[in-house]
Specification:
Two copies of one chain form a homodimer.
Chain A: E1 4-8, H1 15-28, E2 34-37, H2 38-44, H3 53-72, E3 77-80, H4 86-95, E4 99-105, H5 108-114, E5 146-149, H6 155-168
Parallel strand pairs in A: 1-3, 1-4, 2-3, 4-5
Chain lengths: 172, 172
């Protein structure tokens, strides 16, 4: 059964990198998944939502809704999106039948070191919004299916563990 | 190629009835489409959006986003949703590759006669929101692919014409 694999974690933790690698692994197995990257989705909508708590919630929920429908219709969906609050992650879990949550994390020093967009120095800059995890809240996942600490583990090793978890869930 | 067939029109015009019949016609041809009914989508989201103009826009856009992704992944999607403004219907058209717009209409007397929910008498009741077309705006489609006047035409005849249009668009 197709499912939704959601990479949550702070900015620059490595969500998009891992999601893209996972997509390739699916394709290597002859399965074409839909990849939804948070930044790209915001572009499709022409940046109609900002970075307030309520706007972030609305943004995650519309991605979750599309992902659920795709999975129900047989398309595995891989999402790279911070989904920062318990409230929104609970929504994803509630509406999605087969759901795999991957929590991607790294030390704050590592996040700052990777930060090409300058998100971690432009705090409270209205152009980029507040950076969650520094000046806003990020609810650390209580029970993720997979935790990837990108300080400690290579992408190859992490993807292997995620693939194994996909098999357990019946996704692969 | 899979597409999005969107039934727009005022409350009680016959959108859900026609969309459900079209779904059955697809199924008779061995194709399983996704049906998205505006009221049911609101339930999935727990009624998080109201009936202000901006909330209606947000609601239509998230349905459009999911529909586009479904079609891109090979699932024909049939939507029954008022989508009242040019702005939102332009958004649907912009993001969707294969799109068929069906404008469902009837006389105001007919709409009132069919109105089991009492939408047309509960004007400005906060529980149901304003009824678009009576006390709010509904932008009459400028260039729909199919117009169905449910005062004049049976569902059977309308569905035949819609199926024909689906074929022209390469959907069937």
């Amino acid at each position: 059964m197709a499912g939704v694999i959601w990479f949550t974690g702070l900015s620059c933790a490595g969500k998009t990198t891992l999601a893209t690698r996972l997509k390739e692994e699916f394709e290597n197995r002859g399965i074409i998944p839909q990849l939804l990257d948070g930044d790209e989705v915001r572009e499709i909508f022409g940046g109609d939502l900002g970075y307030s708590r309520s706007d972030r919630i609305m943004n995650v929920k519309r991605i979750a809704f599309a992902s659920m429908l795709l999975a129900e219709n047989g398309t595995n969906t891989i999402v790279a999106n911070i989904a920062p609050f318990y409230e929104v992650r609970d929504f994803i879990r509630r509406i999605t039948r087969t759901y795999l949550q991957v929590y991607v994390t790294a030390s704050l020093d590592t996040l700052k070191g990777r930060d090409k967009k300058g998100l971690y120095v432009k705090l409270r800059n209205p152009d980029v919004g507040d950076v969650i995890g520094l000046d806003d809240e990020y609810d650390v996942p209580r029970n993720p299916d997979v935790i990837v600490d990108t300080d400690q583990e290579t992408a190859v090793g992490a993807i292997e563990r995620i693939i194994k978890c996909c098999r357990t869930k019946g996704i692969l």
